[in-house]
């Protein structure tokens, strides 16, 4: 049976995370963190290096995994995206600690560099927008840009989580969708069965009428056939007699 417009679906549509701004920025923050550690944190003497890179990676990868799991489980999607936010907060704290421990400066509101940084991070999402600067920025600049990106990602993810929360409230999780889908399918089958059962007496009546009409036409055909055969045999006998008569006259 063809799928109707009110068919319930168990699986949700796959989100295209590459098109989401917070994912794009999370890719930037991971590459920025990697470049920052490569330039400013010693490979062997500071354990912060691994923590920073892993926190940035955890943010990005849990976004991907959460959105992928969202096809089946809204609950798992919410959990993994919140794990991504937790990793993001850890990463932001590491960059803030770096500024404090090295006695560097936070860019603050009212400064031209703060306004430029804020506008740039707000309207630029792709890695290609930032990557050329990774080798040029000072550690102070990289930290401030990283912190700002973390704030933007967190705000965007919170908005996205609020949307998912509302969807979960109105649509429920996979078990509820499975129940609705199964119940909806059974209801469709029941409705179709009732429709067929209601049509059956009419179809039986139509069939009986067609059979009666066919019997009447069959009887008429047999009658016509017999009359035609009778006429044929009569004509055949007449032809035979005429031939015999003509044969006698020729003798």
In one word, what is the shape? rod-shaped
- The percentage of residues in β strands lies in under 5%
Mean pLDDT rating: 86
Query: Percentage of helical residues?
Result: over 70%
Q: Count of helical segments?
A: 7
One letter per element, helices H and strands E, the order comes to: HHHHHHH
Query: How many E strands?
Result: 0
* Main pleated-sheet profile: none
What distance separates the N and C termini?
A: 83 Å
What this model shows, in words?
By secondary structure, this protein is mainly α. The chain is 78% helix and 0% strand. The chain has helices spanning 21-40, 48-69, 74-101, 112-123, 127-130, 139-171, 174-250. Helix 1 runs antiparallel to helix 2 (48-69). It is rod-shaped and about 145 Å long. The two termini are 83 Å apart. The model is unreliable at 1-6 (pLDDT under 50).
Give the arrangement of secondary structure elements.
Layout: H1 21-40, H2 48-69, H3 74-101, H4 112-123, H5 127-130, H6 139-171, H7 174-250
Helix pairs in contact: 1-2, 1-6, 2-3, 3-6, 4-6
Features:
mainly alpha, disordered N terminus, 251 residues, 0% strand
Task: Summarize it.
By secondary structure, the protein is mostly helical. Helices cover 78% and strands 0% of the residues.
